[in-house]
Amino acid sequence: MKLSDLRSQCLGILLKEGIERPYYTIDLILSKTLGIERALLIAKDDMEIPTQKCVGILSMAEKRARRIPLSYIIGEAEFYGRPFEVGEGCLIPRPETELLVEEMLRACPEASRFADWCTGSGCIGITMILENDDLSGYGVDSSETALRWAVLNAKKYNLESKFKLILNSDPSLCNIGHESLDFIVANPPYIPSHEIEGLMPDVRDNEPLEALDGGEEGIDVYSLLFSGLPKFLKTGGILGFEIAGDEQAKLLMSIAPQDLVLMNKIFDYNGILRHLTWKKTVQ
User: Fold this and answer.
1) Measuring CA to CA, which residue among 246, 230, 231 is closest to residue 278?
2) Listed residue (243, 261, 234, 276) closest to 115, CA to CA
3) pLDDT at site 239
4) Which of 4, 85, 162, 186 makes a 20 to 30 Å CA pair with 11?
5) pTM, whole model, 2 decimals?
């Protein structure tokens, strides 16, 4: 089958189901599967695609038509300009999380040791190290499935020795030295339980619930982290959280421990309050 015919068939599958950005989706699938840059696909219309490849690509289009996330289908997601391997059981990186990386790099230029809590794919922690070669740290997550993806990504960027992974969620059970970290960054589950049903089917039906559901008010995990993380920070160390907006920010500021002073509020591309940072003070 010619590439142009294959592309048309795939587009038909997506258009029938009303899938968003169908042309981009199919071109990305074709590019990744055939090893051709997206910009060059238009010049390959007459290229003959082997039957086995066609079957595989059409199958990928069918999966997307069933609302399976594109990143799961192609096996990777871009974060901070780099590809990270992702799949079932792993939260897909979001562009707004890149703002938290930028803020922590700006706020902690002299840092050497950190932790990335609820690390998932490891994209935050690994990016930190790739952007600042002086850094090393821990990636902590309660999901063994998610950490398998973090292992793959640490290997992908040859960072196994600089990014140590810990299967856990409770700070009281983590073997990290007290006052040993310059900063801690966390993107915990923060969606209130009653809002899960209203999420896009792509997210609600495919991404791991434990990485999304933050309890009744969306702050269950934050409460646990507030109670245990400050002890790992040096005096003057920074704690950075991704959050779900202004109302959740007010809740978090009301339960933050006294040894943490609010430093900064970071808004995302849509003007939504998306990140908060605190500094540990002397008691």
Assistant:
1) 230
2) 234
3) 97
4) 85
5) 0.92
Question: What's the rounded Cα separation, in Å, for the pair 264 and 261?
Answer: 10
Q: Which CATH architecture has domain 3-66?
A: Orthogonal Bundle (1.10)
Where along the chain do the CATH 3.40.50.150 domains lie?
91-280
Q: Which residue has the tokens 């923060």?
A: 190
Closest CA to 104 of 94, 93, 116, 95: 116
Rounded Cα–Cα distance for residues 276 and 283 (Å): 21
Please tell me the number of Cα atoms within 13 Å of 228 on its side-chain side: 18
Residues 70, 98: contact at Cβ < 8 Å?
no
Q: Does domain 91-280 have CATH number 3.30.559.30?
A: no
Q: What residue ranges of the chain are covered by domains with CATH 1.10.8? A: 3-66
